[in-house]
Every structure is written in C-alpha cells, then in structure tokens.
Amino acid sequence: MGNTTATEGTVRWWTLALASVAQLIVVLDSTVINIALPSIQTALHLTDAARAWAVTAYALAFGGLLLIGGRLADRFGHKQAFIAGLVGFALASGLAGLATNAGLLFAGRAAQGAFAAVLAPAALSLISTLFTDPRERNVAFGVFGALTGVGAAVGLLVGGLLTQYLSWSWCLLINVPIAAVALVKAITVIPSVARGQARPLDLPGMAFSGLGMLAVVFSFSEMATRGWNDPVLLALLALGVVLLLGFVAWEARTRYPLLPLRVVSDRFRAAAFLAIGLPQVSMFGFFLFLTYYFQLILGYSPLQTGLAFLPLSVAIGIGSTVITGMLAPRLAPRAIIVPALLLMAAGLAILIGLDVNAPAVFVTRFLPAELLIGLGLGCVIAPSISMATSGVDPDDAGVASATVNVVQQLGGSVGTALLNTVATMAAAAYVVANGAGGQVTTEAAVHGFNLALIVALAIIVATAIVVGLMLTTRRSSVAPAPQAQDEAA
After folding, report:
1. Which of 260, 274, 265 minimizes the C-alpha distance to 70?
2. What is the pLDDT of residues 182-220, one digit of tens each?
3. Contact criterion met (CB below 8 Å) for 65 and 114
4. 297-326, pLDDT tens digit by residue?
5. What pTM does this model have?
6. Which residues, in sequence order, are CB contacts of 260 under 8 Å at separation 6+?
7. DSSP state of 395
8. How far is CA 84 from the centre of its chain?
9. Which tens digit of pLDDT belongs to each residue from 435-482?
C-alpha cells in the first residue's frame, strides 16, 4: 500500500514537471521573438507592417482555438491531448525556425498557436485532476503559476540571449529538443486519465467561439499599431462581440455545450477568472513600456533588457511558491488575492513620474517596482488558478483550464492595445503642446508611458475592489474535485 502511494506520488510530481515545462514554452513563445524581430525583419526582408504578424499569428491561433482545444482534451483524454499538442508544437516550431520566407514563418507561428491551444489546457487539466490533496494542490499550482507568470519575462531574456549569441532561428528551434525530452517522459509517466463522455462535439459552439475569439484578438492586436479609430477594426471587433454573445446564447440552450455556463457562472470561479485576466491588461503594457524604456531611454542592449526583467521573474516565482505555499493553507483566497493586487498597484505607483534624465533609475525605481509587482502577481496567479479549476466536473476540466488561458490571452491583447493607444495619444498631445524635435520627442514618449502606467494602476486597483466584493463569503480555493469528494464519503 505504501509503495503504491509513493508510486502515485512520483507520477503526480513528474506530471507536474512535464505540464509546467509545456506551460513555460507556450507562454514563453508569446514574447521570445519580440527582441528578435529586427533580425527576423532583416533576414526575411519583411516590411514594417508584415513583421508584426510573427507575433500576431501565434496570438490569433492560440486565443481563437483555446476553448476548442480544451473540449478536445476532455473528449479524447488529457494525456492524449498533451502528447498530440507537444508533438505538433515541436513540429510547428521547427517549421517557423527554419523558415526562409515570410509565408513559412507566419504559417509556423500560426501552427504553434493552434497546438498550444491544445497543449496548455491539457497541461493544466492534468494538474487539476491529479492533485486533489489540498496541501499538494497548493504546491502544484504554486509551481505552475510561477512558470505562467515568469514565462513572458523569461521569453524576453531567452530571446535576447539566443538572438545575440546564436541567431533568431533558435528563438523557435529551442522548443524542439525541449519538447522531445518532455515527450519521451510523458509517454511513460503521465497516467491515462479516463476520457470524457462520448458525446457529440458542439460544432456550432466551436464556430461561434473560434470566429468570435479570432475577431476580438485580431482587432485588439492590430489596434496597437493602427489605432482605435480604424473603421475596419471597429467593425471586426463589433462582429467578434456579436459572435461571442451568440456563443453564450447557444451554450445556454444546447444539450452538449462546448463551454457549460456553470463553469463561468459560479461567483467564486468568475472572481478567479477576473483576478487572472484583468492584471494581464496592466502587465502586458508594463512589459511593452519597460522594454522601450530600457532600450531607448537607458540605452540597454537586447541582452541587458532581458536581464533587467530577471528580478521580476524571481519575485513572481517566490510569490507563487514560497509565499503562497505558506499562506494558502491558513488564509481564505480573498485574504491573499486582494492584498497581492494592492501590492502590484504599489509597484506600479513607484514607476509613475519617470523622466529622461535618471541614470540610477533602475536601482532606485525599477528594481523595487519589479519586486513588488512580481511578488504581488505571483500571489495572485497561484490561488486564482487553483480556485478557477477546483470543484469542476472531470468532463469539464479541459474547458475550464482553457478558460483560464482565454482570460489571460484576452487580457494581454486588450492591455497591449489599450495602453499603447493611451501612450501614443498622450505623446502626440505633448508634442503638439511643446513642439517637435530634439529632447521633446523623448520627453513625449516618457510622458505617454507615465499616463499609461496611471491607467494600468487604476485597472489593478479596480480589480482588487471587484474581486474583494465577489469573494465576500468563505469558500476554499482548494476544494477537492468531485470524484475525490465521493471517495472521502
């Protein structure tokens, strides 16, 4: 009996390690080629407009297909979906990394996003179904949450290292050996969790959600460069909203829904989704502006820029694992998540008021800001993901996990578009008021950053208030899954 328990424990922790690696490469690939874009543009002779598709193609396929990927994982088995997603992601990475023209690069990046939409929900589903003990569940989601939080920042560092010392291709090819090693272990270690019921796939729901998400993610992604007043994008955004409303209406009446509304209608789970998604609105803008500030104002190289984000990554890891691991067994989710959001707000507040003449700005402002934001974000992510996936029927584990990724993806797309637009408009107004040329252009950019940071701060504070109000009654964020409750009874 003891050996069986020990073996089961080993299987769970190996599964956590493999799922965490998969989540890391999925999140990392959303930012890893950002720093490499100038090199890619030169090598493949891309126009300024076309180069953005190296990022947009991945985001579109990933965000648009997540719910479908989650339901496929429920239908065909989480292990099977994990392996298929891992193999497909590796092959797509190889195609993109070896691309000799723009078409192959964009096709590879889109394929990466499509397989990531299967891999990410399957990885999270494996953790949520295998870890039912509250203490182990806290640790597991702490580790998974840490990698989810640091992935974007690590992507910038890895992108800088690989671009500077190897080539831009390795920003994508690096996934192939990592996936190959993970695949060998996954086949032998991950248990075959029972498949969901053999019920018909919700094809109308897939069409509504897929097309709606594609329209919304594309609109927000392009608004960052084409502006909020572009009539085509506004029409596409409106179409996306209509399709998603149609999706909700259809899901409420169909017998076999793609996303059962019970997954998102629960007040505590809805609060968890808000706590996961809304901070991303601020964080993606935060990454964007700091990348520009480090390189354009402080004169950092791509590698130095990546290293400058290292304190943030370390802080997220500590917050998700050490601090959350100590607090989660003792405190209700509200008592962790709300103060953590306010800690993030304090970090953003430190950065407001940046200027162009601050040689020691990293030590005096960016370092403490990164530590506060990282610790806060880490303490938000882990308990929120745990609460969002706890108590879900095993047949819905994949789609609930996919919803976690959906809110993150939408938050990042909206945040990049919103805060970039705020910064651009503020900079333009500053130039009009003070004249163009010389120092004014740089001052205008920093002025735009400051105003965008104020908006980001307001979003975080509002999130803390709303989530705090929604989590007014007590409920454990680590409630065991239904099958574990039955066994206990």
Report:
1. 260
2. 898 888 888 776 555 566 777 888 888 888 888 887 787
3. yes
4. 777 777 777 788 888 888 888 888 888 888
5. 0.77
6. 251, 396, 399
7. G
8. 21
9. 766 678 778 888 888 888 898 899 999 999 999 888 875 444 444 333
Contacts of 79 (CB under 8 A, 6+ apart): 122, 126, 186, 190, 191, 192, 193
- Cβ(320)–Cβ(381) below 8 Å: yes
Length of the chain: 489
Burial code of 159-177, b = ≥16 C-beta within 10 A, e = fewer?
Answer: bbbbbbeeebbbbbbbbbe
Residue with tokens 């998102």: 264
CA distances from 25 to 73, 93, 106, 122, 316 (A): 19, 11, 18, 14, 17
Domain residue spans in the chain?
Answer: 2-190+258-488, 202-257
Q: What is the pLDDT of residue 306?
A: 75
The string of DSSP codes covering 58-126 is HHHHHHHHHHHHHHHHHHH-HHHHHHHHHHHHHHHHHHHHT-SSHHHHHHHHHHHHHHHHHHHHHHHHH
Separation between Cα atoms, residue 314 and residue 10, nearest integer Å: 26
C-alpha angle 77/79/80, rounded to 5°? 65
Check if the beta carbon of residue 373 is closer than 8 Å to that of residue 286: yes
End-to-end alpha carbon distance in the chain: 20
Give me the CATH code for the 2-190+258-488 domain, please: 1.20.1250.20
Lookup result for tokens 């803008």: 285
In this structure, what token pair is assigned to residue 57? 């193609």
Query: What value does the CA radius of gyration of the chain take, rounded to a whole number of Å?
Result: 22
